[in-house]
Amino acid sequence: MKKIQYLFLFFLILSNCKEINKTALDKLNIEKTIDSLEIFGENIISTSLFERDFALSPNRDEIIFTLGEFKQKKRFLVHLKKENNIWSTPKILSISGEYQDIEPFFSIDGNKLFFASNRPINNNSIRKDYNIWFSEKVDNKWNNPIALDTTINSTKDEFYPSVSSNGNLYFTATRKDGIGTEDIFFSKFIDGKYSKPKVLSENINSKTYEFNAFVNADENLLIFSSFGRKDGFGGGDLYFSKKDAQGNWQKAENMGKEINSSSLDFCPFLDEKTNNLYFSSERSNINKKTLTVKDLVDYANSTENGMSNIYRVKFDVASK
Q1: Is 102 in contact with 53 (CB distance < 8 Å)?
Q2: 3-state percent helix, strand, coil for the chain, nearest multiple of 5
Q3: Among 34, 62, 193, 241, which lies 20 to 30 A Cα-Cα from 84?
């Protein structure tokens, strides 16, 4: 019943249209490189609700993101499919809609979808922690999700899975062998199994918060969020690191004011074909002057109301 209610909400947002019209189609054009920062899919994907966690399938015909309502008590995976160059309207993914499902990431072949969820693990309905799950696509349908084993998942939270072409897994966790409050870990994928996770070095992690790490297919570029660093702009910034000739992650650099704001900037995804960086941000366009009631209502119903939207910009602009 709740899933039906949220589907109905989407239909209201999209004015009951059955497919994205031509005027709106350019807002979802994933093939052009974006030179200056813009909201992605305004009024289609980015709305007055809470959107985050952008993922684009390798064959470029499916977009999955996280949609949350105002208080973040409900968060679902939502997708759009592209057929005959037309994007469908957003719909809740078939495997989502009951639990808190967030942070999707496609495998390199597009046949696995990794994500974080607080759904019951090992039939334990008491546990409410987030774990990393995956679903396999069979006959163009996503199968029932499977939790990664206890090598990765613990009784504490595991977030934001990201996988390179060789299967190595990067994720966020708070653990005793970590460096700070929240850290980025990685696990090698060897003979079909994940090895014991290791915390990344202090070139990546600090004594504060590191989270939401995206790794590229070649595993030589890492983009992540951090909060509490001296060079930060406010609520949490995006940083990047590249590997040196010896295969070690270099000291991470802040992406700068071209992309980071005084609000939380997080959940990066790099489209390596166009070099567009997609990310989530809670930045706001609120007028600092005294507001009328109408002004306040209009602001609350606007896209940039601080609830988080998905933005994009060319990566080399963001990394200057």
Answers
A1: yes
A2: 10, 40, 50
A3: 34
